[in-house]
Automatic annotation (TrEMBL):
InterPro entries: Nucleotide-diphossugar_trans. Signal peptide: none annotated. The chain crosses the membrane at residues 6-32, 316-338, 344-368, 446-464, 470-487. Keywords: Membrane, Transferase, Transmembrane, Transmembrane helix. The lineage of its organism: Bacteria, Pseudomonadati, Bacteroidota, Flavobacteriia, Flavobacteriales. Its main location: membrane. It is found in: Endomembrane system. It comes from the Bacteria. This is Glycosyltransferase family 2 protein. It comes from Flagellimonas okinawensis.
């Protein structure tokens, strides 16, 4: 390896490490915000829902597409929402193309007979996907406030009573609630997903919201002021994360978002890795698409302070961290050989301390979010350590898949909105076998993921002849992570 190539590898490697370090510092700042906010007791103006004159009209939108396994559960649950029937409308925005349409229509008709104002709304095509369905429903919505639930969400009966009152403050455009997980303990895969989502819904959402920084409506389990949607330019389907897109456009127009950590809305996590793959791809590509679309508006906005701009840029770059992580992983083996070939470059490897420091910062941040939901006993801490390193390894294993998504997003390659299959999995006894929405196609990335598993096995072996074990734990986690993703993808077929 020539010295010039070695310098290029070092430069790319160091830049990626530095970006990861900045990301971890942003997370640390959010942790400080989060812990500070937990000690405050804020009083906010609220509607008095005991006074009929103060009860606003609400429309609940249920955007669905081929949801045979969860439709009955969804509709039965929504029918239990406690709110005056004269002030409540439910729109079933059904873009389905399979037989589930017939059963949905039958169940909607039954609910209509109970006096519930519920409509089964169909479109001729899926233009704009979810964003298009929400936009079309909004045109005929009676409500001043629009609550949105995906098909796998199960809000409590008093959900509207806990969220609607905050709209008394006329500057609030959105109230978002925290996601819960009805099948958290189903498998290693669901535990990892719950772990990552819990960090987002505690540390990130509270950490940003408590200081007036931009947060995002999470696509579901939240409620919008209709005027806010229209003022921000309405739903647009030009990114795969229409929720993040509209959230930023609304906040750039000075609308406030209210995040309620204490209001949990239970939902079902994907139990098969192919479903998790499609969800991860959509979220990460959509994040990169929104960076392209919105970052200049955030940077040049005159109405927001520098710190909010910084957190906004880091938020929009969230998914791009996978590109940095994958770069660091891929170059770590050449770096190992550079270190042992060019002794005078030894000082460069002080840079690797950034990665260790970043990992420690994230370990501390995630512990505070974990204990806020699971508790802080010694046993919970031991469980946390195991779960953190399992999560870290599997996140590394997803880094190729998510890097492809991020690159497509940044390069402007368009792709169809691929929904996440739902399973109606509530406990370990339930099974996903035979789910007709699961694809039997193997991901083309699997061959590369297998190759990377072998590559990092070589990285572990390299430590022996070089007598340098500094990167061995990192390569072990990469080997286990890519192995997990590869073998789960190979065996999890319906």
């Amino acid at each position: 390896m020539g010295l010039a190539i070695a310098y290029i590898i070092i430069a790319i490697y160091s830049t990626a490490l530095l970006l990861i370090f900045f990301y971890s510092l942003a997370q640390l700042n959010l942790l400080i915000n989060y812990l500070g906010y937990k000690k405050r007791n804020e009083e906010a103006p609220k509607f008095n829902l005991l006074d009929p004159k103060e009860i606003p009209y609400v429309t609940i939108q249920l955007p669905i597409y081929n949801e045979e396994y969860v439709m009955e559960r969804l509709l039965d649950n929504i029918a239990k929402i406690e709110y005056p029937k004269s002030k409540l409308e439910i729109q079933v925005l059904d873009d389905s193309t399979d037989d589930s349409v017939i059963e949905t229509a039958r169940r909607v008709a039954e609910l209509q007979e109970t006096g519930l104002d519920i409509q089964h709304i169909r479109r001729e095509n899926r233009k704009g996907f979810k964003a298009g369905a929400l936009k079309e429903g909004l045109e005929i919505a009676k409500g001043d406030f629009i609550a949105i639930f995906d098909a796998d969400f199960l809000p409590e009966a008093d959900w509207l009573k806990k969220t609607v009152p905050y709209f008394k403050d006329e500057e609030i455009g959105v109230v978002q609630t925290r996601w819960g997980h009805i099948n958290r303990d189903y498998s290693t895969l669901t535990r990892i997903q719950a772990f990552a989502l819990d960090a987002h819904f505690t540390l990130e959402q509270v950490g940003r919201n408590s200081k007036g920084h931009f947060i995002n409506f999470n696509g579901t389990a939240g409620i919008w002021r209709k005027d806010c949607i229209l003022d921000a330019g309405n739903w647009e389907g030009d990114t795969l994360t229409e929720d993040l897109d509209l959230s930023y456009r609304a906040q750039l127009k000075n609308w406030k978002f209210k995040y309620l950590e204490d209001v949990e809305t239970p939902a079902e996590l994907p139990v098969v890795i192919s479903a998790a793959r499609s969800q991860q791809f959509r979220w990460n590509k959509g994040g990169a698409e929104n960076f392209r679309k919105t970052v200049l508006s955030v940077i040049t906005a005159k109405n927001i302070p520098f710190k909010t701009k910084f957190h906004g840029v880091m938020h929009l770059l969230n998914s791009s961290m996978f590109l940095c992580v994958f770069t660091v992983a891929l170059l770590s083996i050449p770096m190992l050989y550079i270190k042992n070939t060019y002794g005078h470059l030894g000082w460069v490897f002080e840079v690797t301390s950034f990665f260790i420091l970043s990992t420690i910062i994230l370990f501390v941040c995630y512990w505070f979010t974990y204990k806020s939901i699971q508790g802080s006993s010694f046993d919970n801490f031991v469980d946390y350590i195991k779960l953190f390193f399992t999560f870290f390894s599997v996140a590394l294993g997803f880094s190729l898949h998510n890097t492809v998504a991020v690159l497509e997003g940044h390069l402007g390659k368009r792709s169809e909105f691929v929904r996440t299959p739902k399973f109606n999995i509530n406990s370990i006894k339930d099974t996903w076998k035979g789910n007709k929405y699961l694809t039997n196609k193997l991901s083309p990335n699997m061959i590369l993921e297998f190759a990377l598993m072998i590559y990092f096995l070589f990285g572990m072996y390299s430590a022996i002849p070089l007598n340098d074990y500094g990167l061995f734990p990192f390569h072990l986690m990469l080997f286990l992570g890519f192995g997990f993703v590869f073998f789960k993808s190979l065996t999890s077929k319906a």
